[in-house]
Design goal:
Layout: E1 9-15, E2 18-24, E3 32-36, H1 47-53, E4 58-62, H2 80-93, E5 99-104, H3 106-117, E6 122-128, H4 135-142, H5 146-161, H6 171-181, H7 187-197, E7 198-200, E8 206-208, H8 224-233, E9 238-243, H9 251-254, E10 263-268, H10 275-278, H11 280-292
Parallel strand pairs: 3-4, 3-5, 5-6, 6-9, 9-10
Antiparallel strand pairs: 1-2, 2-4, 7-8
Length: 293
């Protein structure tokens, strides 16, 4: 982080009675750019991207429900419909449409669906590994009957109910866990993500901010056909970004790109799931070129 200008300001908004958090990087006269993080992450994971783009854009980065400094869902449910509603509410309440969106992983999944529901509200969209599970994994999941999926979900929920947030004796211990999660992170990146991603407990230990219940896979969701229908409704230019060392399935190779009207896929060498961390400068160059076109 080399930019010496002030950091973002914190704000709250309400969605389905939840108090949700977002940061605003200023420059309100510029066009709006939403940065939407992935699962078990937080809005400050975008700080390097936001610092680089803040003079060209009015950047707003929300914490998803159950993540960062946003409120946890009281019933422990984190379905896609709730996430999509939260994004729709933020765009509606802040009058951001037509908005440009840059999103990662779960955030990309949410944003792509939103863009299919409200194609007129999205000007351009960059999705970093945001299509969700591969067609192969979805096909395997569909082999299970609804009773099997429900039983597995109930067992998982029960397990999570008894799983206390892990406590780290120090920031340094949590920092080492963060480093182990992504080998591409520099020490500076890992430390910043750790400091922004933990709360200090009353006993002095540290725990990650996200709700453990966000780990649970919902027992049902939109069907694949319904998601493909939404993807086909997206009218804005769409850039799909993938890391060649990631577990995520590339839509150019698995065929999902055929569902999009105006999409481009780009892959980065020496990058895993967090391309915007692993290859920051190269990612920014590609993002800037796409957004300026």
């Amino acid at each position: 982080m080399t930019d010496d200008t002030p950091g973002p300001t914190s704000h709250t908004y309400f969605s389905q009675r939840l108090r949700l958090h977002y940061v605003d990087w200023g420059n309100p006269s510029a066009p709006p750019l939403l940065l939407v993080h992935g699962g078990r992450d937080h809005c400050r994971n975008w700080d390097w991207v936001a610092t680089a783009l803040r003079h060209e854009w009015h950047i707003i980065a929300p914490d998803l429900r159950g993540h960062g400094d946003s409120q946890w869902s009281p019933d422990g449910n984190y379905g896609m419909s709730g996430y999509i509603y939260d994004l729709a509410q933020l765009i509606h309440q802040q009058k951001l449409a037509p908005v440009t969106i840059l999103a990662h992983s779960l955030g990309g999944n949410i944003s792509l669906r939103y863009a299919g529901i409200y194609p007129e509200n999205v000007k351009k969209l960059i999705s970093i590994e945001g299509l969700g599970p591969s067609p192969k994994l979805i096909a395997e999941r569909q082999k299970k009957t609804i009773d099997q999926r429900m039983q597995e979900w109930i067992d998982e929920q029960r397990g999570l109910s008894g799983r206390l947030p892990r406590r780290y004796a120090s920031i340094e211990e949590a920092f080492k866990r963060m480093q182990g999660e992504n080998k591409h992170l520099s020490p500076e990146q890992a430390r910043h993500l750790t400091v922004q991603g933990v709360n200090q407990n009353e006993d002095g230990t540290y725990s990650w901010k996200f709700d453990n219940y966000v780990r649970a896979w919902p027992p049902y969701d939109m069907t694949q056909a319904e998601m493909e229908h939404l993807w086909s409704r997206i009218t804005c230019p769409t850039l799909m970004v993938y890391g060649k060392e990631s577990w995520a399935s590339n839509p150019q190779e698995d065929g999902r790109i055929k569902n999009f009207r105006n999409a481009e896929v780009v892959s980065f060498e020496r990058a895993g799931h967090w391309v915007h961390h692993d290859r920051l400068d190269d990612f920014l160059a590609k993002a800037r070129a796409f957004l300026a076109a």
